Write a sequence for this structure.
């Protein structure tokens, strides 16, 4: 049996707790925010590395983004991944879901045969959660989304996963190759392996591909390959509130609060 | 840019709503989309069509008409009894290619997102995910979808000019649900389904559903943040006394103090309670999205500069650890007095 190959899709995002909100303009200031691996993708990495621990094989990272992603992606190597493929080209910029999933699909195909593709549930910045399903469609493979656990039957070539539902779960089985999305916070991502750390920051197991390398159709990528357009950006409409402080002594404040709540029901 | 499977010139002037059902009950978000869809269809004098898949789901078509649909297309087949991405994907794709709607809306539920994400690529069209509002541009029939960006502080209006259908997934709880009108008339069209078992690759081995938490329409929502120090028992007690339920901001959810289904805000639930009682939370934008629709916002926080006070109708600068027990005690003694 050939070696099991897993590809994890990873994005680098600004740390959400370091993004400041300007309450006057109600706009976001990302200028002082450091980057990190998109937190839901850490859950995807953990699922992938768990599969590798159990069944052997290799775990590669694929990412679409600017060159500055590279050092952040190396955290994944230190966690136990084997190789990074960074899809980086100015022409990939401004991509919506359709163009993003097309580009990732071309990159995964070029990187070789694959048994499992694992994505985070959504990105912390875009939060559309539509990349996993779109990617499965481009690759024409099965999908199991929002999993907290996965096991493989390599004889029958199927994956079995536990999928979170609203107020419950289901156990699903789908044939390999299969695209999996990891339920956010569905597992505890491992820390970097300090024995791998130096290697991870020095190794040349990083491949950077541009649009020409992928033989990507220029009409399918970036802004040009994106059917949707942003017509307007605005600060979130915030409803005006009364902003009345309830003060006075403790007991009267409590009673006032109760009557406010009762009055609104 | 590559064209979609059908273009603007071929579109039918209609808005389609994917009617998601679970064990013979239509999901609330489907009813909410029918209400909003009715409003948009009336504005443009277009047709509102529901697309219903399942096994033995016929009676739900009548409900969809009572809730605003002009027409319901029903695909009824034993292989559609449970959601599978392959079965539902094939049937929805064929139905949409047949009807060529200008607009196709799905709920941003677990299965709705899976289906929409795959189908958008299959149609080679764009998808606006997890929309918090929809508008119609009357002049050119363009759908303008409102999505909120990083943390919910910014909203983007997104439109699509040349690709069809104009697809969007709609976040549950953002639209009102209209009351059913059983005198409404509409057409029910049965769609022939030719599914073979071997086309369905996903197998459901087991399915467990227990109590579903629905915080979108509770009368009182008691939301706890970092400041409640993981004590959600006391919040629950207060919520029970008020006939409400408990929600949380992200930190206590991440810390495992409470289920993720109860997370309020950008990546969680948008709730429309009569009262939102915010306990020990600072008021980050991604949280505010979730309580924006509350009639009255009341908050308690020890920090006099807590941003949440800017977004509250009433606030107390104080410790939830002191105020919550006192509120509970007052409500209990009032209840005893009224029973006496």
């Amino acid at each position: 049996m050939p070696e099991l190959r897993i590809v994890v899709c990873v994005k680098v995002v600004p740390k959400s707790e370091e993004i400041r909100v300007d309450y006057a303009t109600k706009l976001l200031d990302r200028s002082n925010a450091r980057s990190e691996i998109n937190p839901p993708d850490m859950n995807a990495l953990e699922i992938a590395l768990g599969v590798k621990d159990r069944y052997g094989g290799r775990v590669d990272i694929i990412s679409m983004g600017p060159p500055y992603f590279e050092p952040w992606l190396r955290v994944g190597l230190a966690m136990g991944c084997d190789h990074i493929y960074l899809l980086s080209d100015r022409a990939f910029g401004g991509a919506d879901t359709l163009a993003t999933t097309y580009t990732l699909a071309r990159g995964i195909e070029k990187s070789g045969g694959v048994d499992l593709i694992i994505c985070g549930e959504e990105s912390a910045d875009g939060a559309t959660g539509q990349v996993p399903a779109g990617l499965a469609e481009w690759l024409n493979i099965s999908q199991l989304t929002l999993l907290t656990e996965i096991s493989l039957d390599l004889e029958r070539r199927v994956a079995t996963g536990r999928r979170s539902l609203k107020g419950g779960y289901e156990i699903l089985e789908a044939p390999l190759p299969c695209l999996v999305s990891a339920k956010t916070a569905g597992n505890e991502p491992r820390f970097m392996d300090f024995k791998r750390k130096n290697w991870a920051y020095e190794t040349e197991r990083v491949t950077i591909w541009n649009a020409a390398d992928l033989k990507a159709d220029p009409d399918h990528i970036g802004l040009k390959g994106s059917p949707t357009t942003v017509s307007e950006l605005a600060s979130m409409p915030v409803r005006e509130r009364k902003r009345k402080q309830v003060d006075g002594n403790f007991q009267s404040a409590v009673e006032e609060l109760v009557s406010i709540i009762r009055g609104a029901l | 840019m590559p064209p979609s499977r059908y273009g603007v010139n071929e579109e039918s002037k209609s808005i389609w709503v994917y009617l998601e059902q679970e064990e013979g009950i239509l999901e609330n978000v489907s009813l909410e989309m029918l209400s909003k869809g009715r409003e948009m269809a009336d504005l443009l004098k277009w047709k509102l069509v529901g697309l219903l898949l399942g096994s033995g789901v016929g009676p739900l078509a009548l409900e969809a008409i009572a809730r605003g649909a002009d027409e319901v297309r029903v695909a009824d087949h034993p292989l559609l009894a449970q959601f599978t991405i392959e079965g539902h994907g094939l049937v929805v794709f064929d139905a949409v290619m047949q009807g060529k709607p200008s607009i196709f809306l799905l709920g941003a539920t677990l299965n709705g997102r899976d289906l929409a994400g795959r189908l958008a690529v299959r149609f080679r069209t764009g998808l606006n995910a997890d929309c918090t509002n929809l508008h119609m541009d009357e002049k050119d029939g363009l759908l303008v979808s409102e999505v909120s960006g990083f943390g919910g502080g910014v909203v983007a209006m997104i439109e699509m000019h040349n690709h069809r259908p104009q697809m969007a997934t709609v976040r549950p709880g953002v639209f009102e649900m209209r009351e059913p009108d059983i005198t409404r008339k509409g057409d029910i069209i049965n769609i022939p389904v030719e599914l073979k078992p071997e086309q369905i690759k996903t197998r459901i081995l087991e399915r467990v559903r227990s109590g579903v938490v629905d915080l979108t329409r509770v009368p009182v929502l008691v939301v706890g943040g970092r400041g409640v120090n993981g004590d959600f028992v006391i919040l629950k007690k207060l919520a029970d006394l008020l006939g409400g339920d408990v929600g949380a901001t992200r930190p206590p959810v991440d810390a495992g103090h409470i289920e993720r289904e109860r997370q309020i805000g950008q990546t969680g639930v948008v709730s429309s309670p009569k009262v939102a009682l915010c306990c020990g939370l600072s008021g980050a934008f991604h949280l505010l999205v979730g309580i924006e629709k509350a009639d009255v916002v009341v908050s308690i926080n020890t920090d006099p500069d807590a941003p949440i006070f800017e977004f509250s109708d009433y606030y107390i600068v104080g410790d939830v650890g002191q105020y919550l027990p006192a509120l509970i005690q007052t409500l209990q003694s009032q209840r005893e007095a009224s029973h006496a």
